[in-house]
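Have a close read of this protein, sequence plus structure tokens, and explain what the tokens say about the fold. Thanks in advance:
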Amino acid sequence: MTTFETGLFLNRIPFVKTGSGPAPIVVLNGGQAFVRRPTPARAQRDAERIARLLPAGRSVYVLGYDPAPSADYSIGTIVRDVAQILREEIGPATVIGISFGGFVAARLAADHPDLVKELILMVSAHRFSPEGRRSIDRQIACAWAGDFEGFLDEFGLVFRRPWLNWLIRLRFRRERTRLQETMNDPAVIVRGLNAVAGEDFGGDPSWLARIAAPTLIVGATRDRFFDVASLEETARLIPSARLHLFENETHMLPVERARDVTKVVTRFLSTQRCATCGGSG
């Protein structure tokens, strides 16, 4: 039976840990980690879903975000927190960034190469697509106005399968009467989104050249937040990166194709372990 340990790093950064053994994996979650009001049950569900994408026999830490971010919250702030956690609590690790978390993971690998053994960017790149950036701006405007219905409408067609889009719209309709209970404080949502929207990541991507860790980028050709151009650019600018694209999949690739994504991630990590041990791969 899989067991989960919950707690706080730095007395404020929530985490869920599962598994045991050497070579820890640290996962930086997507934006849902600060969009929804955090609860232990929701954190564990996220950790269960993420753990299914990863090989067995490894310690996996799924990190959340500061529940009370300061007004100057930024990617740099988050990177400093994660670097401190790795130095003081976990040690060097494989780092996986999912969606929003990929911005943090990539910058962490560039600024603290001693802490990141392997880097995996999951449905994430170093910048948004033009459509993705416009969507983030709309989300910020809706959250700032307290328009949670408008905010959730931005996620109305994120799945490839029509019946899943229908289910998520049904869920949103059912939740409309209690959105104030389930959604996080608007200021927290806006500060989290501004942490990525406040920087022009694509303006000067030269920092990607500082990433020394072997890197895997897993993307989808119909992802409206991170299009093929942004994914290919990220892979080209990171010295030791490989890109695996899933045709006709969307931003929900890790959910809809979990088994296939697991195979790609496991193969990459196994190859890196063999290379480190001097094996034949």
